[in-house]
Specification:
This protein is α/β, with parallel strands linked by helices and 334 residues long. The chain has seven helices and 23 strands.
Length: 334
């Protein structure tokens, strides 16, 4: 059985940063993740996607951010159980949690921090009858490497941050980019909306609003998309790749059966320290919910920091917590 101070469910950016904050308090961490490598969605879905809202980094690729986090936590020697899903949880007679994975690996800790991002997830697929026929043959629900689309004619569908961000990135790579959105307005960041509109006005991309992709055409490989626009009717557009980016369908999976208070497929927490309704279990990052919640990586970092302060008091109830700034002592001095 693997024993640790804080057992972290999820090895995405929030879970990884929690290791650093715990390490500053001399707490050991072990992480469980169903993916085969650390990084969560950043590694699995868009490792090459630039991220713009990490303090101190005007821009940083998702994969690079994960590498930096791994380097940052290396001095604290965290353990990892990868490629396994946290399945069951129970409490022993000493009050510790026993978490067992789907492959039978058992873990013991006085504190559990759920940092599972969106939980298990699958892409939201548009209701196009034959879309499954072209999956990986012209239809892609996520972008791991934008270079895959160099020199191609690409159609992106969606109106959120992912659709806008990838449209901006692909405009520099693909031969032709068309963004299709069912409404005139967009849900994404205002800066991204402005950039997309500027690209459209300069002719670098084609923007089609009040429209939806309703059909796909091609023998074995995608050749055309059929776009239904309110003002012009059906448009047949030649394309090499169709990328519908409508977000992910989150599923809590087995964690949903752990007795936690759930609201809209997320775990309700107390914003004092992001504790759940079960003492000793915390939820940080995109998997939690509270009034004013923002699903941003930097918010997850903040939540992990406060969580570790309360975790210390659970693990060492008789000790006084004395936190020192790393700028004064350095990591080696803590």
């Amino acid at each position: 059985m693997i024993q640790t101070d804080i057992l972290i469910i999820g090895a995405g950016p929030t879970g990884l940063f929690a290791v650093f904050e715990a390490g500053l308090l001399k707490l050991k961490c072990h992480l469980i993740d169903s993916l085969a490598q650390p990084g969560g969605q950043l590694t699995e879905i868009y490792p090459k996607k630039p991220i713009y809202d990490i303090p101190g980094y005007p821009t940083v690729d998702a994969g690079e951010l994960v590498n930096n986090l791994m380097e940052q936590i290396a001095p604290f020697k965290p353990g990892f159980t990868l490629g396994e899903r946290a399945e069951t949880i129970e409490r022993d007679t000493d009050g510790n949690f026993i978490v067992t994975t789907n492959k039978g690996t058992s873990h013991k800790a006085p504190v559990v921090a759920i940092a599972g991002g969106l939980g298990s997830f699958e892409p939201r697929k548009p209701p196009i009858p034959n879309i499954a026929d072209y999956e990986d043959n012209g239809v892609y629900y996520m972008i791991k490497d934008p270079e895959q689309f160099r020199g191609q004619k690409v159609v992106v569908a969606g109106g959120g941050d992912s659709a806008l961000d990838w449209t901006i990135i692909l405009a520099e790579i693909a031969e032709q980019v068309t963004l299709v959105h069912r409404r005139e307005g967009f849900r994404g960041a205002l800066d991204s909306v402005s950039k997309v509109k500027a690209l459209s006005e300069s002719g670098q991309i084609k923007l089609i609003t009040s429209a939806q992709v309703v059909g796909l055409v091609g023998e074995q490989q995608l050749e055309k998309v059929v776009i239904n626009q309110k003002t012009e009717g059906a448009i047949h557009l030649e394309t090499d790749s169709f990328i519908p980016l409508f977000g992910l369908l989150p599923k809590l999976g087995p964690i949903g059966d752990w007795g936690l208070e759930i609201e809209n497929n997320a775990i309700r927490v107390n914003t004092f320290d992001y504790s759940t309704n079960i003492e000793g279990i915390f939820a940080i990052g995109d998997i939690n919910t509270y009034p004013g919640k923002l699903k941003l990586i930097l918010c997850g970092f903040h939540e992990a920091t406060l969580m570790c302060q309360s975790a210390y008091k659970i693990i060492h109830p008789d000790k006084k917590l004395s936190f020192k700034y790393t700028t004064v002592t350095g990591i080696d001095g803590l």
